[in-house]
Design a protein that fits this description.
Strand order of the largest sheet: 1-2-3
Biased composition (Low complexity): 305-323
Largest sheet: 3 strands, antiparallel
Order of helices and strands: HHHHHHHHEEEHEEHHHHH
Main location: cytoplasm
Shape: globular
Number of domains: 2
CATH architecture of the largest domain: Orthogonal Bundle
InterPro entries: CB, DNA_brk_join_enz, Integrase-like_cat_sf, Integrase_catalytic, Integrase_recombinase_N, Tyrosine_recombinase_XerCD
CATH topology of the largest domain: hpI Integrase, Chain A
Number of helices: 14
CATH superfamily of the largest domain: Intergrase catalytic core
Helix content: 40-55%
Region (Disordered): 305-334
Strand content: 5-15%
Domain Core-binding (CB): 45-157
Length: 434
């Protein structure tokens, strides 16, 4: 291991990029990997400015920006705090050392939020308790982090800021094993989730609002195959109906998805029924109007269009009537903003966790299945839907188009069958069966 850096240069605690103050000796203006020849295409004079210039390219895509900022921030802080050297002086060996660090960020008190309590809790970026990590990274997360950092280094080389990419030597690809989807729920376990949702309490207005929202959210993720980011990024006005060649009226959903690609998702009769059920539970018309701006999934608001009093997951406190001693439940109406990605994730994880506990209560023989269910997340529903569609012999070309796995280019017209057949087969063979 290298000798510890000079104490005068060490940052005591990591800080977010926007609050980070780096000593001149560590800011990278004279980094050993700085490009010395050619014409620089960046005005950045130090590593922090160079990272900000790279991140500025993604400000219009919040999810991508947050992910890229997190990885660049972690590497920069590790380089400064752990090695006492600028990011622009990192070597290939340093990058390999960082990769091992991600699997076990130590010392935990320096790097992991709430390390003494087992980690996991997030703090706002302006909070003194903020840390770059919430625990060790999985092998998949480490690979993703290194891919993002390779993008960063490659861009800095292309921009004339760095002389070379220290991760370039790690890019040789090893032979890949045949892909195998493991993060999905087999039909019996999926039935346990549906059974739990069906058993959720509906005694109060708040209970009913939560039940209908959960039921609709799981329907949308499973029957629509939507990604978690697509739930908050699309609206009910993107549902539309059109007549096929046989005169049948069919509903579709236009989804703006990953990479700003647009795809058409067949809206089955079940999905349309659940949409109407959800909207009517909110006091809305059964069917959406064209170009309606209502988000696909709403927070539970106290008044129409109001978000006052909302909690972190977008739900409002039941306060109406309590001031005068009344115990009557408040009337919940839709708010105007969508659920955040984090709120959707929290709702889905909570349902899976509670369904897992319900399954565990059935006996020790269900422990393994309960453990698997507790690991599930929103993206598991997408994998589950795709796996179940394949099991029911839905044409894989239809699955590809439903899920947006391929761009809808002119060439793809020759690869998939017509859309009416895709809609009919999805409707007949892909069901949720509440």
């Amino acid at each position: 291991m290298p000798a510890p850096p000079s104490a005068a240069l060490v940052l005591v605690h990591p800080a977010p990029l926007e609050r980070l103050v780096i000593p001149a000796a560590l800011d990278g203006h004279a980094g050993s990997n700085r490009a010395t020849g050619g014409v620089a295409q960046l005005a950045a004079a130090n590593d922090l400015d160079a990272i900000r210039a790279w991140l500025a390219r993604f400000t219009d895509k919040q999810t991508t920006f947050d992910s890229y900022r997190k990885e660049a921030e972690r590497l920069l802080l590790w380089s400064l705090v752990q090695l006492g050297k600028p990011l622009s002086s990192l070597t290939h060996e340093d990058c390999l050392r960082y990769q091992r660090f991600l699997a076990d960020p130590q010392p935990a008190a320096t790097w992991i939020a709430n390390a003494g309590a087992g980690g996991g809790r997030k703090h706002p970026r302006g909070d003194a308790r903020w840390r770059p990590f919430h625990g060790p990274l999985s092998a998949t997360s480490i690979r993703q982090a290194m891919v993002i950092l390779n993008v960063l280094f490659s861009w800095l080389v292309q921009a004339g800021y760095l002389a070379g990419n220290p991760l370039a030597l790690s890019r040789q690809r090893t032979p890949k094993a045949a892909p195998r989807i493991t993060r999905y729920l087999e039909p019996g376990l999926w039935q346990e989730v549906k059974n739990f949702i069906a058993s959720m309490p509906q005694e109060t207005a708040r209970d009913r609002a939560h039940y209908y929202r959960v039921r609709w959210l799981f329907t949308l993720l499973y029957l629509g195959g939507l990604r978690i980011a697509e739930v908050g990024g699309n609206t009910m006005g993107q549902f539309f109906v059109r007549r096929d060649r046989d005169g049948t009226m069919r509903w579709w959903l236009t989804v703006q998805g990953k990479g700003d690609r647009e795809r058409l998702v067949p809206v089955t009769r079940e999905l349309m029924t659940e949409l109407s059920r959800y909207r009517q539970s909110l006091g809305m018309t059964a069917l959406p109007s064209p170009n309606e701006a209502t988000p696909l999934v709403l927070p539970i608001g106290s008044t129409a269009g109001s978000t006052a009093g909302s909690t972190a997951d977008g739900t409002a406190a039941k306060t109406a009537g309590r001031a005068n001693g009344s115990t009557r439940d408040t009337t919940f109406a839709p708010a105007s903003r969508p659920l955040t990605r984090a709120a959707v994730h929290t709702i889905v994880k909570d349902v899976f966790a509670r369904a897992a506990e319900r399954l565990r209560e059935q006996g020790d023989e269900q422990a393994a299945r309960a453990d698997l269910l507790k690991q599930a997340s929103a993206h598991w529903l997408r994998h589950t839907a795709g796996s179940h569609m394949a099991d029911h012999h839905v044409d894989l070309r239809h699955v590809r188009d439903n899920f947006g796995h391929a761009s809808l280019t002119t060439t793809s017209i020759y690869l998939h069958v017509d859309e009416d057949r895709r809609h009919q087969e999805t409707d007949e063979k892909h069901r949720i069966d509440w």
